[in-house]
Amino acid sequence: MVVKCPSCRAFLDDSDNFSVGEIVYCTECDADFEVMRLNPVRFRSLSSSNSDRVEFSDEDLND
Fold first, then answer.
1. Could you read off the pLDDT of 20-61 as tens digits, one per residue?
2. What is the distance between the alpha carbons of residues 13 and 50, in angstroms, rounded to a whole number?
3. In this predicted structure, what is the pLDDT of residue 21?
4. Which of 2, 6, 7, 32 holds its CA 20 to 30 A away from the CA of 52?
């Protein structure tokens, strides 16, 4: 599974090993996200003040 950063769309490392509650860091844009759900992956932004949730479609999850 390939997952992209919801902020900059860069590929996130170790996306095959994500777990719910894990904090994910994007090295491209320095954004932090908490994994809220798997399949589909749903993040909660920790970098923005509004903590928007971002849900990926199947197109975003596959290479």
1. 999 999 999 999 999 999 888 888 888 655 444 555 444 454
2. 25
3. 94
4. 2
Answer yes or no: are the C-beta atoms of 20 and 37 closer than 8 Å.
yes
**Helix or strand (DSSP H, E) at 36:** strand 32-37
Domain boundaries along the sequence of the chain: 15-61
**pTM for the whole structure:** 0.66
Output b/e per residue, 26-54; b: 16+ Cβ within 10 A. Answer: beeeebebbbeeeeebbbebeeeeeeeee
Q: Which residues pair with 23 in a beta bridge?
A: 34
Q: Please, are residues 60 and 4 in contact by the beta-carbon 8 Å criterion?
A: yes
Provide the pairing of β-strand 23-25 with 53-55: unpaired
